[in-house]
Amino acid sequence: MVKKYLILYFLLFSTPLLLRAQQYGLFNTRTLFDGFENPAQKTFVLDSSRKFASNFLLPYLGLNAANKGNNDLIRRAINEGTYNAGNLPLRTGDINTVHENVNIYLLSFRIFQSYKWQKELGFSWQLRSDGHLDYTNETLAILDSYKRFDNNPYDDVFNNDGYAQSYHQFSMTYRENYNKKLAFGVKLSLLSGITYNKLNISDSYLHQDFANDLISVRVKGIYRSTFQDADELSARNLVPTFRNPGMALSFGTSYQAKSGVFMMANLKDLGFIKWRKKAYTNKINTQVFIENLSQKSANQVANEIADIAIDDADTSSFYSATNAKVDFMLSKAFTLSAPDFTYTPSLIVSKNLFYKGGEAAFVSKFKYRDLSVSAIPAYNFNNLFFMGLQGMYQTPNFEVFLGSDNLFKTVSQANGAIKGDATVGKGYNGASFYMGLGFKFGNTVEHPQNSSTMPGIDDEQQGFFKRLFSVFSKKR
Question: Which InterPro entries match (predicted)?
Fold first, then answer.
């Protein structure tokens, strides 16, 4: 890969091609995904479910990305494989946005531990990736050709701000009922970093001097990365080695009121990764002169500008925060015309803590016996509107679901890519897809009146959270 694409490899061009949301239609469904993502949630049903649950290495797959700004140019690059910024307007001050999220549960395993406190213990292995970038039109233009720029000075021309991070997440989850209405759960995770990129340009300047056949470029900011050349990346990078170790914590609680109102709150993935000393850090504060323009190609000039970020980088370790977020959910189920036909509206708000982004979603779930369909309109805080749809078949011992948090954009994006036609679709570019499959096996977790082998029948010991909170109450 040529140098001019290195800086934006993960920050721009890779992200729209990945297929960010949290699959809100799966919240409060008691699926395996719900139990691991929302730690206080139950996944077993008394008298019906079996004791163990797993996806048996059949991935829970969630992919999502969107790009807002320069929509036609990006759509043409994706659908037709051509890149031409010749008509891109400059000096507008426009800031474009791209963001992505990947969450894949490679393996999940959950155990029903105790009837009395509804204790559940789970283990999982996830592959995570997330990224966000604010970028200027001029950044795309310089990748095409420096000849797009006239001889007047350009201020703040490359003021881009973004990151992309990927890692493995190995987790243990535990949940229990505090009483009949209140429940708590926790998720402890060990992380293994894969790749990290961060670019933050706070000041930049470009002036093309035709008389002296040169370009003057000034840049101030910071660039961090775990690689400088695409050749450093291979399939071996996906193997978890813990050379870039980290930790994360999730904590959740849920409350079921007598009125039927269900409330849930979560603090998710609060943690960090320590990137090893071979990672690159470049604190940029320099001005360069690219001379003899008439003797250089557009690619050579773009490469020399890109080199400003990666030249003279020091190798040193550093820490990065995981994309922690807070969630809140409010929901209530209503019985419709038939006893087996229910409607459950849910309001969900999610906000990132350290990085830009967040969403508000309204889930309308219609369920008849084991089948359910959910419509999920959502507003992304980057001023994007999504319309999602999810279908699910779920019994106490089996679940399968398929959905998209951005259905219409996904269909048009896929249609245009298949046809290789940039005229298919309009507005911002986006795509989203998720699916999952889970099974339960082992002995049935029957009620104590029906079985003498029920886990936790003789469990007289208080639950973990009940003992924990009682310690604090005694101190007061």
Answer: DUF5723 (IPR043781)
